[in-house]
Design a protein that fits this description.
alpha/beta; eight-stranded mixed beta sheet; about 30% helix; globular
């Protein structure tokens, strides 16, 4: 019995083997931001990565301005015929192995977007360990320029961009959303950025680069087909069910009455029905508004003011969404995935339309927008 126990213990000890494939964190370079542009030579692509520098991350006092040698991040760029070759070229210059498992954002330059991002999506789809929830943003000009932004409140430019998306200012488009749209021949929209400089900064003594949201980029068949301004982008994001606290201002009585309302709750729904002329799509928006300010010189009854403000708000929101949708039709980008809605509800009718859907959506699709706003409070009136 004693020998049996010793044999069991020996077997247990032998089973306690080490991990032969372990990889130390000190051997890895974590990519937080990926920026893709056309190369300067025709037929090439420029890939830029943003990675943290662990040895400087604790130096918050030095990195808070984002300038000087104390930056807690590194920017590396390479140009090659393909994205894969560019990444391999970047890897050659690094002492640690690149990993995309912690990638936060992908930014696409305008020229590359108009040429088509099919190669980028295919590469990301095949890259092992790549998070499909990574956010995607567009950029007017070159995406690489975005890396110049000054991360005043954050440690890295990629964190600033992540906050732009995650705070629901406009679209929260991910790589997964792009791949689904590609597979279903639908369109998608990206939050669209640009970058500029501020006046001379007293703190660091040189111009600071600031990124801002300038609207939405519209895609169809993995190519950028057009763009929307901020107001239209917010409206379209609401129709897609993805917007946070938009602010609207209205006037009445030839400008004598004015009001501003903060939308504290918003939701949307889509439906389709068939008529003799074809499908009719209905976009329904609902929201709750909190009045930020009211100035009125004619109406004194609260019920009358409430009715006017509600009517004006609903007209303005419906008008903005209708105009945004009209521009997606002009660009031929089915961003709201109305084709998928048609396929789900009327598959037989969809079979007749799917081969010409892009043209049908641009010229013949009938889309109606309705809005219902509930005013929760009026705040202080002047």
């Amino acid at each position: 019995m004693r020998y049996i126990k010793l044999g069991v213990v020996a077997c247990l000890i032998l089973s306690l083997t080490g991990c032969w494939s372990k990889e130390e964190l000190d051997d890895l370079t974590f990519v937080f931001g990926l920026y893709v542009d056309n190369g300067k030579k025709p037929g090439t692509v420029e890939v830029t990565i943003s990675t943290p520098l662990p040895n400087r991350l604790m130096s918050a006092q030095q990195s808070s301005s984002g300038g000087g040698d104390g930056k807690p991040y590194s920017i590396v760029s390479k140009t090659a015929p393909t994205i894969t070759e560019a990444m391999i070229s970047i890897q050659r210059d690094l002492t640690r192995r690149i990993t995309l498992s912690h990638l936060k954002v992908v930014v696409i330059g305008e020229d590359y977007a108009k040429k088509g991002i099919g190669e980028l999506l295919e590469w990301l789809k095949r890259e092992p360990g790549f998070p499909l929830g990574t956010y995607v943003l567009g950029c007017s000009g070159r995406a690489k320029e975005i890396t110049k932004l000054t991360p005043v409140y954050e440690q890295q430019p990629s964190q600033v961009l992540l906050n732009f998306v995650s705070d629901n200012f406009m679209f929260k488009t991910t790589i997964k959303d792009c791949l689904i749209a590609d597979a279903s021949y639908s369109g998608f929209a990206l939050t669209y950025l640009n970058i500029g400089t501020k006046p001379e900064s007293i703190e660091i003594g040189k111009p600071e680069y600031w990124a801002r949201i300038q609207g939405a980029a519209l895609y169809q068949k993995n190519k950028m087909k057009g763009s929307l301004k901020v107001r239209e982008g917010i409206a379209l994001a609401w129709a897609q069910g993805n917007v946070h606290f938009p602010l609207y201002s209205i006037t009445w009585d030839e400008g004598k009455g004015t009001a501003s309302a903060l939308i504290t709750f918003s939701k949307s729904s889509k439906a389709v029905s068939l008529s003799n002329k074809g499908p009719i799509f209905k976009i329904s928006l609902k929201g709750t508004a909190s009045m930020v300010s009211i100035k009125n010189s004619e109406l004194y009854d609260i019920k009358a003011i409430s009715a006017v403000i509600k009517d004006k708000l609903e007209q303005k929101i419906s008008g903005d969404v209708t105009e945004a949708i009209r521009k997606t039709q002009k660009a031929g980008t089915d961003v709201l995935h109305l084709g998928l809605l048609m396929e789900w509800n009327y598959p037989q009718r969809w079979k007749k339309l799917q081969n010409t859907w892009e043209n049908y959506y641009s010229h013949d699709a009938e889309i109606k927008v309705t809005t219902n706003i509930h005013i929760s409070n009026f705040g202080a009136a002047q």
